[in-house]
Amino acid sequence: MKQERICCVIGHQPANLPFGSNESDERCIRLKKELREAIENQIQDGFVTRFLCPMNIGAELFAAEIIEDLQTEQKDITLTAILPYELQAADWPEDGRERFFETVRRCNEEKHVQAHYDDMCMANTARMMTDAADCVIAVWNGCPGDVGLTVQMAKEEGIPVFQINPEDL
């Protein structure tokens, strides 16, 4: 049996993306293309069989949707939603909530890090993912924050990080 290899996919929310929520912007289209290529490279190299994603609106939902699309051809890959807390999408705009719930519903597995939001919620999520990951794909502009914390933790553990900087698109 093939050993399970895990990739954590993380990224910025619209507020930290140069195109915001505009998915028809050329930069967003390029981001999705680069994200798909990074995910496909991990699968094609035979490295990754399971993806973990915290499912925040923006780059993480893009990644989850790409992985779900690739599952139609690659039956041996799985996607686990790593949800920081139960009401993660409660304050999102309605279309974002619907997209979130539909995407999570299609995942192979759903895990909650904790029941309620608190100051350590995102750090606990980062720790859970980096403790399990063999590599990280990060849509990250290099600035401090939740994505940066996950990248830092991964690097401290010697986990390879493949970065896509949305500012360079």
Task: Report on the architecture of this protein.
With about 170 residues, the chain is an alpha/beta fold. It has 5 helices and 6 strands. It has a single domain, classed as Rossmann fold (3-Layer(aba) Sandwich), CATH 3.40.50.450. Helices cover about 40% and strands about 20% of the residues. A 6-stranded parallel beta sheet has the order 4-3-2-1-5-6, with helices on both faces. Strand 3, helix 3 and strand 4 form a beta-alpha-beta unit. Helix 1 packs across helix 2, helix 2 packs parallel to helix 3 and helix 4 packs parallel to helix 5. The protein is globular, with a radius of gyration of 15 Å. The mean pLDDT is about 95.
Summarize the structure.
By secondary structure, the chain is of the alpha/beta class. It has helices at 26-44, 59-70, 94-106, 121-132, 146-156, and strands at residues 6-11, 50-53, 78-85, 109-114, 135-139, 161-164. 36% of the residues are buried.
Walk me through the topology:
Blueprint lengths: L5 E6 L14 H19 L5 E4 L5 H12 L7 E8 L8 H13 L2 E6 L6 H12 L2 E5 L6 H11 L4 E4 L5
Q: What is the CATH first-level class name?
A: Alpha Beta
The total count of strands amounts to 6
CATH fold name: Rossmann fold
Shape: globular
Relevant terms:
169 residues, alpha/beta, Rossmann fold, six-stranded parallel β-sheet, 40% helix, globular
